[in-house]
Design a protein that fits this description.
Shape: globular
Oligomer: single chain
Number of helices: 14
Amino acid sequence: MIEARNHQHRLILQKIAHRVMLERGLQPDFPPQAIAELNKITSPAHITNKTTRDLRKLIWCSIDNNDSRDLDQLTYAEQLPGGDVKIYVAIADVDALVKRQTALDEHARLNTTSVYTAGEIFPMLPEKLSTDFTSLGFEDERMAVVIEMVVAKDGSVKDSDIYSAMVRNYAKLAYQKVANWLDGIGEIPGSIRMVKHLEENVKLQDLTAQRLKELRHTHGALNLETLKATPVFVDDQITDLVDDKTNRAKDIIADFMIAANGVSARYLAARQFPSLRRVVRTPKRWERIVELAAEHKFKLPVEPDSIALNKFLMSARAADPERFPDLSLSVIKLMGPGEYVVFVPGEDSIGHFGLAVKDYTHSTAPNRRFPDIITQRLLKAAIAGKANPYTTDELQAIALHCTKAADDVNKVERQVDKSAAAILLESRIGQKFDGVVTGAAEKGTYVRIFHPPVEGRIVSGSTGIDVGNRVRVQLVSTDVEQGYIDFRKSN
């Protein structure tokens, strides 16, 4: 059986992903009505409003994965007198082509997000849009919603604005090459060298992102580092799983997007528009986080405190950087999941515990996430001085659905990841591994082994262990179709 599966791993995972999506109520394929609408779209959106600004001369660049084609954001920095920096974030104007209550819109609403599995990517929008007409691709001129932020030396956002503009991507940059260059361990990417003044601009973006990050961490944003295992394929056969780690270039985009999402939320509130917020409440299992800190000789307060928790995380990273991602994963599991809620101006904002921000929406990835399309429509209405396109009840229903669907998508992606891991491990039954406990509840106890970075269930010997405990386990069985990887506790 194992031999028969060789060189068919990708096809196996594609079939599993397709099946699991259907089981979760998601659509792996676009319905005929959506395809019919797509066929009527023959070009990208053009300027139709006199208030749209022409920013095509700014040296915009994208920074994303090397193989990404669904580009949602471009960035640009401008040095201001006195040390302030104006950051421009251009967001693809997806709403210009994907109209509300169309078949394309309904498919995006149903799936909520693009689904990234080890076997296949299932885009939320057809690739004709997401990788072309609504993508901010290299040398393409596209409509965008621009979020403008003036960032002070201390990392605070002093002023901001949002408006529609036409933009052009002058350089498609890849995270790893940019990070290596910024860290001084690689040459300057050729795409940067070819554009006059882009080298200084990317360095200014990096400096400003670091200022934003430093201030957020001062306010209690958590220094977390998680790892995502990505399959390595050779001729469609899985040969290894490698960790996709964060880096300095990813931080530029992450910090700019966090700031832009905050500006978007406040822009809507200032104009008395409701918004779809992404929130993470105070940790559900704070008492276990306190215990976990105590195991590392660190004392946390009895009540949830993000600043104190971040101090613990920073000390833990300094003490054991190699195992810090495992501690981060434990803390994330204990904090509980994020959710979408509707914020109405005048109400108290729940905020995002992990990011230490009160105002946070999703607005920066409309090619990949449906809540971002909703936010974009709200922003465009507010910019134009038009009425709110959604009732509060409609937004409430969207928030509930998006929270559930996002959870379903996460489960699909995890199950296919586990199927990929099961393929890799099925020839290693009986071997022993070191790992860390990542989940402990009535439904089961789970462990993440260190190499390969795989999570599975402890089916024997789990009594008395909890999230964050280090354990040694023995692999007892795998099930590729179900994505099951079972261990027993070992000595």
